[in-house]
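Please check this today:
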Amino acid sequence: MSEIRRALNGCNGEIKFDKLYVYHQWDGAAHTMSELGPKMDKSSWVTEHVVDAKHVNDVKKMLVDWELYENGWLVVGYSNSHLFSYRCQLGNSQEPNALQYLQHL
C-alpha cells in the first residue's frame, strides 16, 4: 500500500476534509504514503471537533475506515463508505448524519 491517489469529486476536483486532502489506495498513483507524514491520533481529532460529546461514537463510526495523517486523510477500507461516497459525489449519496455533529469544517 505505498501508492495512493487524491480522492476526486464528480467534477474531477480533489476533495478535502478539515482542510486536508483525502487519499485512497490506487495502483500506479502519483502519490506515496511517505507524503502523508506521521500518523496522527484520530480519536483526539474527533474529541476536539465534535460539538456534543454524546455524538463521539457516531462520528467515530462514520470515520471507521479513515486514518488521519499530518498531511491528509487516508481511506483504507469500505466497511462504512457513506462519507467517502458523499464527498466524492458517488451515486445518490446523501450527507451523513454524523457530519452535523462536527464543528463547521
Observations:
- The first helix runs from residue 42 to 49.
